[in-house]
Amino acid sequence: xxxxxxxxxxxxxxxxxxxxxxxxxxxxxxxxxxxxxxxxxxxxxxxxxxxxxxxxxxxxxxxxxxxxxxxxxxxxxxxxxxxxxxxxxxxxxxxxxxxxxxxxxxxxxxxxxxxxxxxxxxxxxxxxxxxxxxxxxxxxxxxxxxxxxxxxxxxxxxxxxxxxxxxxxxxxxxxxxxxxxxxxxxxxxxxxxxxxxxxxxxxxxxxxxxxxxxxxxxxxxxxxxxxxxxxxxxxxxxxxxxxxxxxxxxxxxxxxxxxxxxxxxxxxxxxxxxxxxxxxxxxxxxxxxxxxxxxxxxxxxxxxxxxxxxxxxxxxxx
Length: 318
Hints:
This protein has helices spanning 3-23, 31-35, 39-48, 54-74, 96-99; strands spanning 27-29, 83-85, 104-107, 115-119, 126-143, 149-154, 158-167, 170-180, 191-196, 201-216, 221-228, 233-237, 244-251, 255-260, 265-273, 276-279, 283-286, 289-291, 301-309, 312-317.
């Protein structure tokens, strides 16, 4: 068997395994760290043209990859990003000058079994949420004008951190899972209830692993909703408080249920593999594209893009 076939087979297996482990929340790393290792391609290319036997080339290639990852981990505190399992130690790396700026709020918290984090509302017109929460159960069913956002975590599946930042007429929230409790083997132990302010125009970016998502956004002004999930159960209810809403869902083996208002026009583009679709009230225009009859005339429009594999997709009107 040739060196090329063995080598690229190992690389594809490695990359696929990384995707699975990261989506399940078993390891943490930044894809930017992978991109920073592009010089490794030059090394592997050099090994491939050496006048050695295939077995020796394969050993040298694998050794180069392992050494590269070890070097990145060694220098992660210098800004290269880390590649490691979730651990129970919490690290914050803040630039001191950035930390003292008045337009940023950085908060650290002491964690008990339950955890409550809040972000003050500063009257801005726009708001965005970057929600990176690993595996568990995540719920949006309530609104409140007390805070821009309130995160209530129940159980002992994980520990979170939150930062807020104000830029012009926008408030940004960064909510992330920082440590995973390995004594908890049940992802249901990790439950986050999110309560948000109804006034701002929201941009949501949800990055979750194997999760159960129940988001009722019908009472909120939403511009974009981006859900990147692994093997998930996704229940999403949309409203019509903004004239145009863009929704993008990228999921693995998942159940995706989306409810849209009867008075909103909707267009759906799907890219699926071995997936079932139930699209009530839609007409297929061409392969993978569906619209409601009132799409062009409707005052409020919803654009939905779904990429999924081995999934069950249900979209209905209410």
